[in-house]
Write a structure and sequence with these properties.
The structure is a single chain. The chain is mainly beta and 150 residues long. The chain has a single domain, classed as Protein Transport Mog1p, Chain A, CATH 3.40.1000. It has 1 helix and 8 strands, in the order E-E-E-E-E-E-E-E-H. It has an 8-stranded mixed β-sheet, with helices on one face. Strand 6 and strand 7 form a beta hairpin. The longest helix has 14 residues. It is globular, with a radius of gyration of 14 Å.
């Protein structure tokens, strides 16, 4: 297996650093203007969206989850990226795809699998029109996740 390192070193001990100015939401009852196609997650630890509405009119979302049930992604949708990264000695699977429910939605996930089969996953979803504005935000959050801190 070939891995690529995440671009920045891990920050000091902290489970995750969520973006400043983002607010929590309930994934079971998301805001009406949330981007469509966010994958359903089991064991949600945090779900956030920016306070300000981006140009597309759809709010992007970040969801952090930990569960023994891996996040299900339809393999036929993985037309963008599906590879493994080195996260300071831990392997993380990075995937990017378009949501089946709305092809304007770009989804990304970073998943860390523990030896006991538990998966810590960061899921991101954004309208394709806003993707370039949020890709660095998503990557910065992914780089801050410490799956052993949960």
């Amino acid at each position: 297996m070939t891995t690529t390192p995440l671009s920045r070193p891990r920050p000091p001990a902290r489970a995750v650093r969520l973006p400043s100015g983002w607010v929590s939401f309930d994934p079971a009852s998301p805001p009406d203007d949330l981007v469509p196609g966010l994958p359903a997650a089991v064991g949600v630890l945090a779900a956030v969206t920016p306070r300000r509405l981006p140009a597309s009119g759809s709010r992007p979302a970040l969801v952090l989850a930990r569960s023994s049930t891996p996040t299900d992604v339809d393999a036929s949708l993985l037309d963008e990226d599906d590879h493994f990264l080195d996260d300071g000695g831990r392997t993380v699977r990075y995937r990017r795809w378009q949501a089946a429910t709305d092809l304007r939605t770009v989804c990304e996930s970073w998943a860390w699998a523990a030896a006991d089969g538990t998966e810590t996953a960061l899921l991101a979803a954004v309208d394709i029109a806003d993707y370039s504005c949020f890709t660095d935000v998503f990557e910065t959050v992914a780089e801050s996740v410490d799956p052993e801190a949960f």
